[in-house]
Amino acid sequence: MNNDTSAKKQPPGMKHLHQRIRDDIESRIMSGQWPPGHRVPFEHQLMAEYGCSRMTVNKVLSTLATNGLITRRRRAGSVVAEPSTQRAVLEIQDFALEAARAGTVYRFQILHRTIEPIDAAAAQRTGLPAGTRMLSVTTLHLMDGVPGAYEQRLINLDTVPEAATEHFANDPPGTWLLRRVPWTDAEHVLRAVNADAELARRLQMKTGAACLVLERRTWQAGAFVTEARITYPGDRHHLIGRFSPAAQGPAGGSAAVSP
Amino acid sequence: MNNDTSAKKQPPGMKHLHQRIRDDIESRIMSGQWPPGHRVPFEHQLMAEYGCSRMTVNKVLSTLATNGLITRRRRAGSVVAEPSTQRAVLEIQDFALEAARAGTVYRFQILHRTIEPIDAAAAQRTGLPAGTRMLSVTTLHLMDGVPGAYEQRLINLDTVPEAATEHFANDPPGTWLLRRVPWTDAEHVLRAVNADAELARRLQMKTGAACLVLERRTWQAGAFVTEARITYPGDRHHLIGRFSPAAQGPAGGSAAVSP
DNA sequence: CTTCTGTTAATGTCTATACATAATCGCCCC
DNA sequence: GGGGCGATTATGTATAGACATTAACAGAAG
Q: How many CB atoms lie within 10 A of CB B115?
């Protein structure tokens, strides 16, 4: 235990206590000094070492555990986790925000807008019953007048009935939905495809050119909300993600869609 | 308020108290009942409502804040966060693990292995000084004998000197590195490219076919470790990610590379 | 009306303690 | 030796209180 119980009141030039403990443990793990499988000191050892209460070290170790750096088991204690998988966090931003950050002028065109029953293939992908009425919108996104993405979107009118009368004059469908409809689950699929004639014409590229396709389907408490298939020209856009296993943020990293 | 202050000792048929509070708040946010910008009750209101201590509600709200569902500010209280960006968490798995899960036989071939000074383009990408000695390895990954990925990797021998004598007889370079060298930062770039003649031959596809390219660069406390460029046939592989904003896991979701 | 300042309310961190839970360890008995 | 069983131990959850920090707010001074 600490030599003075009043030591808690003075953070002389440093951050917070739990942060200092966190940094110490993290640096030992990430430097390789504590390899995977290595025993992390018990909570009572750490509270003796840092002269603090168990709640403080418990919070630190719990955070490290939810971040995947250590594995905790009752009675057995904590060990440094195996780095089983690598994670990339892609943050798909709003087109307008992305353009503003890049210093370009954003514009969009609604190419197509219909309300019709879901087709068989989409019903299969989304799990919706045949005959469900969907709003189908095709949007072209332009950065400084140059096509940057081609978006084909289906919106479930059972979940979002107010979309039936929306014509997306001010905001593109993705932004409009994001601001209006919460979602609880999302599924993303990333693929590479060769542009067909229609895509090539819309995105001003040669037929057969490689395109990056991002499909996103979102649900809200089990109810399907929307499916978006966004096609980026392979030569003009790519997705960038950064990740740090020790980051304390919501997803452990940040990322952005970049030209 | 609770009808009985001694209720804390009896979780009759439910989970834990903090989890119940969490679920309540999360469902109100994600159902849209509390839209972005809506005020979340103050901590003392919640402790009155649930008949618990402030530490308990504080932990709940802090967790929701780090997960990005709410924004907290001193004196002003907490509000439901704006859903500014959508996140996709891609979990890039070990090839062998992925194959085992898919029920296929995994095999790999080292096509090329040299040690040479870094070239100008790679020096620019990685920020390494010209002349740094790098191990360059090209690997073909096969699932049931079919090429599934083509990997070009550079390993910094200053950071990983033991790689100089490694010939990857048992494990492919990615797996070998992951088990041996910790990393603290990673950067990912996803692109779509048309296969050139060499790639098409290796991956048994037509020249010009679209390929998904994942580039990953990793650092360890500022020191560059490795760069991997993994090319997947666009028609055979895609990346799948799932994400739930309320998930409590390390990155708020899970994902996998799938055929 | 503006700016400065002191109050105050809400969150952030930490302590000391208590009991619950789970799993390992060692012991006993067969 | 092996199998069951209780004791031990580390973590998981929760409490009640304390002080620090910050920023919104109101009132005073110019």
A: 13
